[in-house]
Amino acid sequence: MEYKFSGMARTQGSSMVRDILKLTQGTDVLSLAGGLPADAFFPVEAVAKAYERVFRLGGTTALQYGLTEGYIPLRERLAAIMSSQGISVTRDNILMTTGSQQTIDLVSRVLLDPQDTVLVESPTYLAALQVFNSYGANIVSVNTDANGMQLDDLESKIKLHQPKFVYVIPTFSNPAGSVWSMERRTGVVELCRKYGTLIFEDDPYGRLKFDENLNFPSLFSIDQQLGGDGHVMYTSTFSKTVAPGVRSGWLVADQAIVVKTANAKQSADLHSSSIDQRALNELLDFFDLEGHIRTVSAEYHTRMLRLTSLMKERQWEGITWNDALGGMFMWVTLPEGFRSEQLLQLAIQEGVAFVPGQVFYADLSGSNHMRINFTHTDPSLLPKAVDRLDRALKMYMEENVVRNAR
Ligand code: PMP
What we know:
By secondary structure, the chain is α/β, with parallel strands linked by helices. Helices cover about 45% and strands about 15% of the residues. The chain has 14 helices and 15 strands. The strands form four sheets. It has a seven-stranded mixed sheet, sandwiched between helices.
């Protein structure tokens, strides 16, 4: 049978990198590639107790269909949590989603027509690029440095393209692990307010801070301080604070956007799991989530420091990285001209994996970068992982020196 797939399905190929990384599953390749939290820190007992409570308190309703917008007590709780973070909203501004990945998909579905422009950071989150592509968007990268999007470039691209929205990850981004400065946060919101441009703020990692005294206000809160009018849509998730398996995220936005997105969600999956939402609500009743986030963040900080100290010992020439202030990723810059896709092939032969930088750029530039996850690999294995990476780098350099000399 010859299947006639839609145009959208035809554009959604599996990436070469994903295929390579899939091959490493079940082998002894140490993966610094995936964006996975540390399994050992999942609050298994507490989550089990929360589910038990759901069934003891009212199993029948938990098993019934629920509201598309999500379980009301959880949305009310989230509205209070958001308000404590400077985002002053009610439950009517909140839509529960099956992870923030679904928020990205649904928001794109209600806002993007083919050829509409989306402005993104350079680099940005790979799976968001895939969603925007699937809706036929014209994705345009804005020059980005360690402090965030560059304001002059953003302004000229807003004027030139009149984007439907600007998609950003200002705090501990994926892949670069970077944090926008206060000046850029305010500057981007001011520019978008000036031109009536919508911002889509994705914040899965903001709670994973390595220094509790650091404070990075969301663009949503800055917009509200400047007068509001709904210039920012915000999404976050329980994936990195509780566990990704609960598949629970949320959208915070002007009610007009929440209503349209809820309509889209209805056709996608009617609603996110009633049981999971109730279990999360129970969990937040008795579990010290704030304490848990502090524990996990401290562990991630230790792992990041361990990895970077092992990397420093190698004294790799011309190779630099950011010491992340939070989140799950380090962004490594290799010498100009390096092709990290080729380095990956050698690294896998040696038994270690990372994600080559190119895939995080809308224009497929950025070959001389790689994303390294420091949260998932057991710390006892990090010396082995760095050894293997070291061998791969040496092989790459030898091969390329020989090739260039020919
Ligand atoms: N946005 C970003 C930037 C991410 O890194 C991720 C997860 N890797 C997501 C969204 C999706 O997270 P989830 O669907 O698990 O909430």
